[in-house]
Amino acid sequence: MDLYFVRHGKTEWxxxxxxxxxxxxxxxxxxxxxxxxxxxxxxxxxQINNAYTSPLQRAQTTxxxxxxxxxxxxxxxxxxxxxxxxxxxxEGQKFVKLEKEIPEVIHAFRYEPSEYDAERxxxxxxxxxxxxxxxxxxxxxESNNEQGxxxxxxxxxxxxxxxxxxxxxxxxxxxxxGGLSNTSLxxxxxxxxxxxxIKWNETDYLDKKLSSTDTI
Length: 216
Hints:
- This protein is α/β, with parallel strands linked by helices.
- The protein is built from 7 helices and 6 strands; from the N terminus they run E-H-H-E-H-E-H-H-H-E-H-E-E.
- Helices cover 35% and strands 17% of the residues.
- It is globular, with a radius of gyration of 16 Å.
């Protein structure tokens, strides 16, 4: 089975450098609709049987727009386990502000996951997110035919944690391949109980130079 993971399109808060998290949200930028069209073209030759999305609006809008642009009748299911990290008191706040107020927490979240203290910000740990997202993906795999392909639309930090955990990466090394960009595509293959990475954070089809606010 092929699993295609998509990070949602770029939002207003992404552009403003704000943490969104599992409860915060903001609309997609107009440019994201163009990016989603390009992603749809990239996926036009892929036989996708089912699509799944986080319940957060930015992910749902990305998934719905993508399927419409692909012009295919693909069932879309909302899966709560695919939502972004609960970032507690960080949600809605600017990166630069928190880097000054709680620099060690922000550094750990971005670069040293094993040192991340989720209790400081009243949010979820990497371990908790890995557990719930991996369970969500496993449920998806079990409900589909292994010969097909599925599309999964979620969020930057949650997807990095989810995908790396599926591949057997330890929490300390979750960030080893970097982050995921808005409207990016990451391709995994599932066979005989094992996940293998085909392509990480593909963005060539977007045909633009990415900025620092595009990737987390």
